[in-house]
Amino acid sequence: MSPGQVAREKISEIKRQIKETDADRSRLLKLLGSFIDERLAILLAAEQIGGPVAGDMMDVDAEILEAGFSATGKRKKPKADAAPDKRQRRIDDMFGGGHGREVEGEGDEAEPDRRAAAGDEMQRLVEELMNRLLAAKGSSSEAYIDVPEESASVRFLTRVKVAEFHPRDSKRLRLVDFGREIGD
Asked: Which portions of the sequence form the region Disordered (predicted)?
């Protein structure tokens, strides 16, 4: 083989590895997004409204989230069916729905909104941390992002040692660069 052929083979091998790495990265990001949406978002929403720390109570569902939590972090018992007055419901049914139906639906939409907000915040935070780490190009001081408030998502990432606060400024957060620590 000539040196030119060896170089072309090496280049094609590197390009193939780059494509595989990009495919793996996008697959992992999709899996992370689905994990956040399906499992983690409701735990973060529960912690955000005063519930247990995300991970302590794994069986949080819509009913528990809607009932809420006490000041000590214990879950409240769901309230008895707070259905509107039967007489009003019958009038609403006769006239094809009305204001009573809209009020009834508001409680059902509060849980998905909390859950979706917690999931969106976590995905935004992880994406921002990853982008900042890539943009920093190895500089650990430039890898920090500013967090406006300490939320359940921020606490979760620091608790599982995926992110860490700046030693002197608790409003700044960075992703732990695992690859760099292994390479050093």
From this structure: 70-116
